[in-house]
Amino acid sequence: MKVLVSEQIAQKGLEKLTEEGAVVDIKTTLTRQELLEVIGDYEALIVRSNTKVNEELYQKATRLKVVGRAGNGVDNIDMEGATKRGIIVVNTPESNVVSAAELTLGLLFATCRNIPQLHNRLKDRVWDRSGLKGMELQGKTAGIVGLGRIGSLVATRLKSFGMNIIAYDPYISDTRFKNLGVEKKEKLADLMGACDILTVHTPKTEETYGIIGKEQFKAAKKGLTVINCARAGIVNEEALMEALQAKVVKRAGIDVLEGEPQATSPLLEFDNVIVTPHAGADTVEAQDNVGITVAQEVISALRGEMVPNAVNLPTLPIQAMDTIKSYLRLGETLGKMYYQLEKEAVDKVEILYRGEAAALETSVISLAILKGLFEPVLKERVNYVNASLIAKSRGVTVTESKESTTNNYLTLITLKVGSKGKVFTISGTIFGKGELRILEINGYEFDVNPMPYMLIAENIDKPGVVGQMGTLLGAGKVNIATMQLGRKTTDQRAMMVLTVDSEVSKETLDFLGGIEGILKVRFVKI
Ligand SMILES: NC(=O)C1=CN([C@@H]2O[C@H](COP(=O)(O)OP(=O)(O)OC[C@H]3O[C@@H](n4cnc5c(N)ncnc54)[C@H](O)[C@@H]3O)[C@@H](O)[C@H]2O)C=CC1
Ligand SMILES: O=C(O)CCC(=O)C(=O)O
Question: Which residue intervals of the chain bear CATH 3.40.50.720?
Fold first, then answer.
């Protein structure tokens, strides 16, 4: 087991690797060219966030079986390239959450009490508090965007300071809000208008990148304190600077900057912005946790054992993998549809396996469904092993049932997602050599081969709607690959499922949504 460690990890992690019999090379100063020259010798590579694990590297990494990310975000790892080659990518999503939550509080205190500024004055031998009056937390309102692992740790800690906590997270169940004693805000603008302190804890996704921008600052209370200890750009930096200049934002504490690790951000010019160099996970405890966890996972993956945090692959015996592979793809595809079509928090997931599917190791397929379900909102933080734990911690009950026969198909999976008394359903099958088909969405019947880019629209079943869709997509330079219609004659509704060759812009989607008779239209990425 030859392991290359290309970025610094804790000594305890390195010791764990050697204790387990791995040959470890720690080469943290390699140039890119040198890395490409040596990577072919290794079965495992351990990185943090600076090493780009991409196609160029995979082509040279002919023996690579596992990439270990010592930390959480896997934005530096090409997941598709790894999956295609059967390389397991593991990360350590739980290991640094307490440290990240604690730095959030550290930044909050530092900003609210001007600690760095006062410290600097005194170190310059100036005993002067003038112009740097702080703000008490007690009685103030904290607005949390993203009530996941770190967001909820921050919430419980802030409560102990006598703060009122509100949060915006459309993907968390009401029960979870209730259990945490946090008031749910349905709209981000309502949170912005009510909080004295804003702290963001979402992953960086297409939806959250820039989620706090000019519009949100317009709705903010004057004198707001902003903390970003999640990912650069979740709070748009330009909008933040404008809000600071307009004194809408009084102070900010930022751990993550656009362009990092370069220290060139214009935010560094503001005296009332306290910054740290992405140090959220930089504690002895978190780094020990991360190092030991990544070492254990890399060793398990190399030995073909169960891997607790495999981001891209479940670990199954190779023979079972062969049969189940298409079902995992089907499961993930069905799961991925939900949050892209509906924006309601999930209470309940029911999975029904019929025909051949019922005879398989369905628990792994159910994990694939849950992984697919949560991925659009949680990104890399959900994997095959933590998927059911995530469901549980988010108050989602999951049930599985099986029937050995089906009516028309040899094998069938139906997913029912319950949300506030409503039920969303989707069914799919596999035929031939692992070809996937979506057969039904919310009672509308189809036979669709799911593709990377899809458009799904519900409409009044009347003449002209389909034609206008085609025209507007053409105008938006979107080529339609296939199109199918499902109808419900009882209530004169229909659903269109289109596969398209490219992404559909927000502008085109808005046009489509404006067609008379279109009730809802969504762009879905598989
Ligand atoms: N500064 C640092 O060194 C560290 C930063 N992080 C970052 O902290 C962030 C939070 O991490 P965790 O709490 O572990 O993640 P998590 O996955 O447990 O929670 C994220 C939450 O964001 C919510 N969310 C997703 N999209 C949303 C949207 N559009 N609007 C509102 N809420 C949305 C999800 O429902 C989920 O509850 C991540 O960006 C992570 O990369 C994590 C560790 C260290
Ligand atoms: O210190 C690190 O490696 C970055 C920590 C982090 O942001 C993460 O784990 O996502």
Answer: 2-95+285-302, 97-275
